[in-house]
Amino acid sequence: MNRVPFLLFVFAFGLTMMSNTALSDSYTESVWIRNKLSDKNDLIVHCKSTDQDMGYHRVHPSGSYHLLYKEHDFDFFWCHLWQGPHFKHHQVFVVNDGNV
What sections of the sequence does the record tag as coiled-coil (predicted)? Predict the structure, then answer.
């Protein structure tokens, strides 16, 4: 009985798993921001970290904004939110401190 094809498959599968693990140098984190404001108010969102800027986004009522980011050991990630008449109400949340 020839086991060479089976052993080649196991070897190739092992290499694939090791390369996928080696290529993922950091974790990908996920943040969801949902607009559940009353009175049909839009929400302006601006999220950034010390080395990544996700830009400004307008989230319509009952809409959501989803972002992915790479978390590094000493990196802070925060989001600014504006709402209300002329977007004068402002709040900042530090994403990775758990107090959202």
Answer: none
Measure the CA–CA gap between 78 and 47, rounded to whole angstroms.
6
Per-residue pLDDT of the chain (100 residues; tens, 9 = 90+): 566 555 555 555 555 554 444 445 555 778 888 888 877 789 999 988 888 888 999 999 889 999 887 776 667 788 899 987 788 888 887 776 655 5
Tokens of 50: 């010390």
Where exactly are the structural domains of the chain?
26-97
What is the distance between the alpha carbons of residues 55 and 61, in angstroms, rounded to a whole number?
A: 19
For residue 19, what are its two tokens? 């390369």
